[in-house]
Amino acid sequence: xxxxxxxxxxxxxxxxxxxxxxxxxxxxxxxxxxxxxxxxxxxxxxxxxxxxxxxxxxxxxxxxxxxxxxxxxxxxxxxxxxxxxxxxxxxxxxxxxxxxxxx
Length: 103
What we know:
Layout: H1 8-18, H2 28-40, H3 45-63, H4 71-82, H5 89-96
Helix pairs in contact: 2-3
């Protein structure tokens, strides 16, 4: 604060750092279930709920993708699906590699 004027940028940065609040009402049994699951994986209720909600939100949005094609574009799309190009040497080599999670 200078000249008696509060520094609003500090307040804005603090809100941005902490995020926003979402209030939920749930039955006691549901809260207890969430708490037990969070504790089982070493998280607190907030961390658990944010992670679960975020993961589900991404899944929902990915499942809801829609694209529209006119009849000619659809026919071309359908033909491409029915007749994929032959795999390139790079693709064949990539598919032969063992994935990192399997090493």
